[in-house]
Specification:
The protein is of the alpha/beta class. It has three helices and nine strands, in the order βαβαβββαββββ. Bound molecules: inosinic acid. The site of inosinic acid has 17 residues, from β3, β5 and α3.
């Protein structure tokens, strides 16, 4: 699969992403204005660029933790089983938690993570996804904040990979096979 030749067409520019993060942070800051116990939880690995920009733009006291859940292998098909490959380092009981996801696709990953983290009794649990592909949804879940709604395209860049490549592109692009 990864050997098929492809090109990447820009879909969302770095500038548009930065502008949208500024808007989102305006809302998120209001939501968490009164707390000093916010933990921002990034879902590895796709959210690592987004979370870095998000917490800097947010500019409030936060702790950052990471969780790795598997849903995709090195293919473009979603698997139904969600496994936790790396758990949080810290406890979240009684804390305010913001889960940061790169893309909500079928919804299996986010709904599994929400269930898991809610079982640990946080005070408040909110979710944000940079991208949402509502047409692909199999589990009814919606992030509280969404950067961009996109059509059913396979995208890369800004932390998001295709077979572990292209995470370092500064923009979001769609994969177009050329064979
Ligand atoms: P879900 O469980 O089907 O919602 O899948 C969520 C995960 O699948 C995301 O966190 C991504 O890691 C991966 N994913 C979904 N769509 C894409 C895509 O277009 N490009 C790369 N990874 C994707």
């Amino acid at each position: 699969m990864a050997e098929r030749p492809y090109v990447i067409d820009e879909m969302i520019s770095a500038k548009a992403i930065a502008a949208r993060i500024e808007e989102l942070c305006h809302d998120i800051r209001q939501e968490f204005a009164s707390t000093d116990k916010l933990v921002v939880v990034g879902l590895l690995r796709g959210s690592f660029v987004f979370i870095a920009d998000l917490v800097r733009e947010l500019d409030v006291a936060v702790e950052v933790d990471f969780l790795e859940a598997s849903s995709y292998g090195d293919t473009m098909e979603s698997s139904r089983e969600v496994r936790i490959l790396k758990d949080l380092r810290g406890a979240i009981e009684g804390r305010d938690v913001l889960v940061v996801e790169d893309i909500v696709d079928t919804g299996f990953t986010l709904s599994h993570v929400i269930k898991l983290l809610n079982s640990r009794k946080p005070e408040r649990l909110k979710t944000i996804a940079l991208l949402d592909k509502p047409s692909r949804r199999e589990v009814p879940v919606k992030a509280d904040w969404i950067g961009f709604e996109i059509p059913d395209e396979f995208v890369v860049g800004y932390g998001i990979d295709f077979a572990q490549r292209n995470r370092n592109l500064p923009f979001i692009g769609k994969v177009r096979f050329t064979d």
